[in-house]
């Protein structure tokens, strides 16, 4: 049975990533509370949210392959959210200047017909450059969407200039969707990507 692929995300970045695979899919905004739980580790939060997003769409798409994804950034013993506005992004980037940040990018593929679930969390360790307040201001002027990214670092754009180094098993994960593992999940469901 060829099940339709649903990307359970309203993220433009994840949609653009999935489009690179050349597979037909549609997007749907998940209905799931994304509030982190007290004391929850970053990788656990990312995984719980990815699974929850995918499963929240099962009633709307009872016979589909539903992709759920989430990313949580962690630095200095705390989770970093999406700043949401320029002032918070400036403050966040000033705090992160020169620091090592862990980005935990979870992906799951949920077969809503068989109730099968495949999940993975990819860890990307990033070292930020030392940034002046002028550099931070210029970056946010030129990359206004960064306020909607974890850690205010839009790495697929000008945010790459903020990074000194990154270590990951999947360079796609830092953008928000671990494609290497997702391709394997799709193949396990009989979807030929190549």
From TrEMBL:
The keyword Cytoplasm applies. This is 7-methyl-GTP pyrophosphatase. It comes from the Bacteria. NCBIfam families: maf. Keywords: Cytoplasm, Hydrolase, Nucleotide metabolism. It catalyses: N(7)-methyl-GTP + H2O = N(7)-methyl-GMP + diphosphate + H(+). The keyword Ion transport does not apply. It comes from Kingella potus. Belongs to the Maf family. YceF subfamily. Its cofactor is a divalent metal cation. It is found in: Cytoplasm. Its EC number is 3.6.1.-. One of its GO terms (molecular function) is nucleoside triphosphate diphosphatase activity. GO terms for biological process: nucleotide metabolic process. Nucleoside triphosphate pyrophosphatase that hydrolyzes 7-methyl-GTP (m(7)GTP). May have a dual role in cell division arrest and in preventing the incorporation of modified nucleotides into cellular nucleic acids. GO terms for cellular component: cytoplasm. The active site is at residue 70. The record marks 13, 71, 156 as: Important for substrate specificity.
